[in-house]
Design a protein that fits this description.
Layout: E1 7-10, E2 16-18, E3 24-30, E4 37-38, E5 57-60, E6 64-73, E7 90-97, E8 103-108, E9 122-133, E10 136-145
Parallel strand pairs: 1-10, 8-10
Antiparallel strand pairs: 2-3, 3-4, 3-5, 6-7, 6-9, 7-8, 9-10
């Protein structure tokens, strides 16, 4: 099977969009009344307690931000979550999005040296393969240094 025969799909539908050129954006919700942003969108109403607008619009969120916090994960996740065999530790980052000023959690891109990271440094969104099953590659958003 060639790489062009492999179907690529997000591991969670609707959380991000991967474009043919390799770029990606997270898909969030924005309240048109108060301007609050939400990720993941999940609900169709504004969760700002001072607003409560019944509808949110879908918006592409910033692809760049600032590293707020980070850690490394050295333990395999329990089922039903997929883990490589053998398990490979990975980093996790909390990134404050540039425009929305909200924190979004995600894994760090493969090859990121967690010991070289510093809070406040520039980060950017990317998409990587998470796992493959039955000819389908499941992808996830991640953060890499900008």
């Amino acid at each position: 099977m060639s790489t062009s025969d492999v179907t690529r799909v997000p591991v969670v539908e609707g959380y991000f969009v991967e474009r043919p050129d390799g770029t990606a954006t997270l898909v969030g919700g924005k309240c048109e009344r108060c301007g609050s942003y939400f990720f993941p969108k999940r609900f169709s109403f504004c969760r700002n307690p001072e607003c409560g607008e019944p509808g949110l619009i879908d918006v592409d969120l910033s692809t760049r931000g600032t590293l707020w916090s980070f850690t490394d994960n050295r333990y395999a996740p329990p089922p039903p979550y997929p883990a490589s065999e053998p398990f490979e530790p990975y980093g996790v980052a909390a990134v404050t999005l540039e425009t929305e000023q909200m924190v979004v959690l995600g894994q760090l891109a493969r090859g990121t040296d967690v010991s070289a990271l510093k809070a406040g440094q520039a980060m950017e969104l990317c998409v990587e393969d998470l796992y493959e099953a039955d000819g389908t590659t499941y992808t996830v958003w991640k953060w890499r240094t900008a």
